[in-house]
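Example 5.3 — Thioredoxin domain-containing protein
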Amino acid sequence: MDPVTITAALAGLIAIGTALGLLHRRLTGRVARSADRGGGTIDPGAIDPGALLPGAVLGEQATVVQFSSEVCTRCPAVRRMLGELVRQRPGVAYLDVDLTHRADLAVRLRVRQTPTLFLLDSAGTLRSRIGGAPTRAALTTELDRLLETR
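Solution (predicted structure tokens):
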């Protein structure tokens, strides 16, 4: 094989890999609000926290649901960050749902990666969804926005 062809092929593969990596980085942790999605719920009606975790209840003002899995390397850091942010906001509940053995739930709620976060209002209506590990600033902004709209 010609060295020029090999070099061009390698350069092309590197360019494609870089472009895909940058696209993935841009889309990970992005916030999608319910208004952006054409509605506030995934299924008709509100999300029942008891169906996610037995005995779970909605927060008085809001609920943050983190979907994680056993193999998720970013989930523990997101869990710690969420714990801090929720403790600073009375009336906000936090639920951590392990999807490792709950494929049915992942399919029904369209969770394609972990962590995925749902921000629910006091009625259980989905207001924001974050796929991937969010930044502290993005999560703080979304929580504060949700609490202000009450």
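Remark. The beta strands are 30-33, 62-68, 92-98, 116-121, 126-131.
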